[in-house]
């Protein structure tokens, strides 16, 4: 997440496996190349992003709860399931949350 917010693509590429898969309500199992083309360059819309909780989910998975603030001042929370194998991120499944009031 730090490399995304900083738009440090070199660092992100080192952390994301070649067979990476990304799923969200807007993207259905897109591959690594599509993720870097469509999703990675969107950080300019953020003012900040903070991980609130990381919980083991069994096997190679962890749940991450995070909050982000848009440049507009709106704040939102999402949950992700991240799969990490051999020190690299192999899958991300994003579940969009609502606005934080």
Automatic annotation (TrEMBL):
InterPro entries: DUF4440, NTF2-like_dom_sf
SUPFAM superfamilies registered for this protein in UniProt: NTF2-like (SSF54427)
Domain of life of the organism encoding this protein: Bacteria
Domain DUF4440 stretches: 2-98
Classification via Pfam families: DUF4440
Name this polypeptide is given: Nuclear transport factor 2 family protein
Source organism of this protein record: Streptomyces bathyalis
């Amino acid at each position: 997440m730090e490399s995304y917010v900083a738009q440090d693509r070199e660092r992100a590429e080192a952390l994301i496996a070649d067979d990476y898969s990304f799923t969200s309500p807007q993207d259905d199992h897109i591959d690594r190349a599509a993720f870097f083309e469509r999703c990675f360059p969107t950080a300019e819309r953020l003012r900040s992003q903070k991980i609130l909780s990381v919980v083991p989910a069994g096997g190679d998975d962890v749940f991450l709860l995070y909050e982000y603030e848009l440049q507009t001042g709106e704040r939102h929370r999402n949950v992700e399931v991240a799969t990490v194998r051999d020190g690299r991120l192999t899958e991300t499944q994003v579940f969009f949350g609502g606005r934080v009031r």
